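Review form for a predicted model. The reviewer records the input and the model, then writes brief findings.
Reviewer: anonymous (R2)
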Amino acid sequence: MITRFLLYIIANAVAILTAEWLIPGVVYSYNFVSLMKIALFLAVANAFIKPLVKLLAGPLILLTLGLFTLIINIFLIWLVVRFAPELSMDGLNAYFWTMLVVSAFNFVVSMATHKNE
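Model under review:
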């Protein structure tokens, strides 16, 4: 359980670096401690806040056939950006593509750890 959470933190850190490298509008000040703080915020948001928001937004998720989860993921990244001044994003386009990069990295970790269980 703890190993899996640590893998998510590492994946989030690599995803933030990848998003900063690939996506225009994503600016990150290079500092290892701040990168780990951002990755930890993302992991905690995905582990604790996301299930609660998905539970509350269940009817909207059903009504939009799951597309509202994209909005929830963008909201979580926006929340992390608000708590981490080292990371900034310009515009919805940057949030959307960053959400896709972070989701892809988390999906890979999820598939790798699920196979081992």
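Findings: The chain has one domain: 2-112.
Further findings: The chain has five helices and two strands.
Recommendation: see findings above.
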